[in-house]
Amino acid sequence: MRVCLAQIKPFLGDTAKNLKLHEEYIEKAVAEKCDVIVFPELSLTGYYLLDYVSDVAMKTDDRMIKKIVALSKDISIVFGFVFEGEDNLFYNVSAYAEKGRLVHLHKKVYLPDYTMFEEARYFAAGKEFSVFETAIGRCGILICEDALHTSSIYILSRMGVQTVFIPSNSPARGVVGDGLEAASIWQTSNKYTASLLTVNLVYVNRVGVEDGVAFWGGSEAYSALGSRKARLPQFEETMGIVELEQEDIRLARIHSPFYRDEKSHILLDYLKGD
Asked: Which residues are in the CN hydrolase domain (predicted)?
């Protein structure tokens, strides 16, 4: 599978400009014969929306969503936006479109509400993690902090996920040695998740500045063997292309049978209080 990592700099609150940006990157990815293109979290809206969340919210029949879904006839697309549910609540979502149809919509479950983050104040939380079938195999989406909780990666693993997409809006904060603390955390987490779950993993983080906060980029991809296959520059709007092999999943599960040997009944007994 040939994957395009679209490390973009969205325009805050300007969905029209962001749609055009998506179209430009999708066109480039199609020209490069990519199978799938992955955009960051909230790629159609920008991140620090605050009280503008309801103004930019869309339903799946919105003209812009239908436009991107239509473009998926040539390439599978992972993209993010603010979704207004039938309950008139607003969700941070990432969608997977393929062959001209909307295949999956993931509502972010873990909404950070500490330090600089206020997501839980403006968004309703999703209630589940799930996998979905695609032309490139069984996939799952975890939006940013979703991927930093053991419950999410465990559930996807038990559902037989093969490829995990992680759209992110990680700001540059903290310093460790000569690098960013946030980058160190994500690089460690991504390698761990790919290696222990024996899955291919694609992490796409945005760049740009909003409300004085810079987003560091550094998007990357790992094979199921735990090998980093691509890493994009920090603080630079760009795109990268990586080849990920389904055969690596098979090889990883032969050499490191963590997936096979997991004893889910122990966790179930604990949760039941037995």
From this structure: 1-251
